Amino acid sequence: MSQVQLSSVSKRFNDTTAVDALSLRIEDGEFLILLGPSGCGKTTALRMVAGLESVSDGEISIDGEVVNDVPPRYRDIAMVFQSYALYPHLSVRKNVEFPLRQQKLSKAERDEKVNVALELLVLSELADRKPGQLSGGQRQRVALARALVRQPRLFLMDEPLSNLDAKLRLQMRADIVALQQRLKATILYVTHDQVEAMTMGHRIAVMNEGKLQQIGKPADLYNKPANTFVARFLGSPGMNIVAASLSGGSVLAGGAPIATTEHPDATAINIGIRAEDLVLSPDGLPCTVVLVEDLGSEVQIISDTQQGERVTVKCSPDSQRPVTGDTIYLRAKAEKIHYFDAITGERLYDLLPQDSAVAETVATNETSESA
Q: Which of 19, 32, 192, 251 would bridge 259 by S-S if both were Cys, CB 3.0 to 4.6 A apart?
């Protein structure tokens, strides 16, 4: 497999900058997720790696070779798209075999490679069916087999599970992870689904408005987001962000103390608290209940502060439940509060070298830019 380096890569469409000085490194055998909302530039970045979009600035290298001007067919890359892109008139076997015909391999070589791919993706019994006779999950496995059969040095996947229902997405996530582990494949995977990112990738690169926000292991990004965008985007639900101040060893939100703190007094900051780190209390941050969602294993109470900030808290299904319109009071676990600059949204207080998520972002960017 391969190592990929993006060094200050930008892409402009007339006056619009889709990708802005993106620097990141994908290690050999790594499963890297590009995560972000629609329009953040993640698919454009993937298409530049594939050679389907030209690079406005910067360099893309694969195994040390700059490929900016190398046509897609010579980059030895396989892509799996959101649409399955299967030939409806060809059988599963013929669809998987198609790229090998383009390489003009002998029939014996084609048969050997196709049989291995079909067996690996559990498609052997479906080899003679047409795509119209398959389920969505089966068609996606055919698309994966067609990419796999070429044995490329790099896999690019652009939201491959978006068209599947929830149950199939769960199964396909497990299948793709197992396949990557078995093949030790280098994969660059684009998604807007943070659940996919958290459960599949070795590392996640979060993008917004064309810029890299943070890169690191899923747990690092979840537990120590670099800014309020990452905090809100990762997690289900995303992190609650509310205006606050620190005074006399207390964290004040909505004018009420919700936790203690050892940080110095400060005004006009934002605090972030995960839904699971809030508790119902006789006093604390006052909120008006908007909706109560019973998810079986937990209850999510969605509420608004007096300042109009949306706050969600997770409770046990056995706990007493408020109803819409009730006023509830929330306190936070002090050790779980995240502090952010109210103006820039950047993380405060613990931007230290031992902060692995932030340190990795800085180190990766500096390495990429100097390479």
A: 251
Q: Provide the token pair at 346.
A: 């950047």
* Side-chain-side CA neighbours of residue 280 (13 Å): 18
Which helix or strand (DSSP H or E) is residue 322 part of? Answer: none
Domains recognised in the chain with CATH numbers: 4-223 (3.40.50.300), 228-349 (2.40.50.140)
Q: CB pairs under 8 A, 24+ apart, for 73-78?
A: 75/50, 75/51, 75/154, 76/152, 76/153, 76/154, 77/49, 77/50, 77/51, 77/152, 77/153, 77/154, 77/155, 77/156, 78/147, 78/148, 78/150, 78/152, 78/154, 78/155, 78/156
SS3 132: helix
Q: How far apart are CA 255 and CA 257, in angstroms?
A: 7
Residue-averaged pLDDT of the chain: 89
- In sequence order, the 6+-apart residues with CB closer than 8 A to the CB of 65 are none
Find the length of the chain.
371
Categorise residue 182: left if φ over 0, alpha if ψ from -120 to 50, beta otherwise: alpha
Q: What is the sign, positive or negative, of the torsion defined by CA atoms of 290, 291, 292, 295?
A: negative
- pLDDT above 60 for 37: yes
Q: In 3-state terms, what secondary structure has residue 278?
A: strand
Quick one: how far is CA 306 from the chain centroid? 32
pLDDT tens, position by position, 40-62: 999 999 999 999 999 999 999 99
pTM attached to this predicted model: 0.86
CB 312 within 8 A of CB 240: yes
d(CA 347, CA 272): 10
The amino acid at 194: Q
Q: Which residue's structure tokens are 């003009």?
A: 104
Distance (Å, whole) CA 141 – CA 139: 5
Within its chain, how far is the Cα of 116 from the centroid? 30
Structure tokens at 65: 């070779």
Q: In what order do the strands lie in the sheet with 211-216?
A: 77-80, 154-158, 187-191, 31-35, 203-208, 211-216
Residue 160 burial (10 A CB sphere; 0-12, 13-18, 19+): buried
Tell me the per-residue pLDDT of 75-125, one tens digit each, with 9 for 90 and over.
999 888 877 788 899 999 999 999 888 888 888 988 998 998 888 888 899
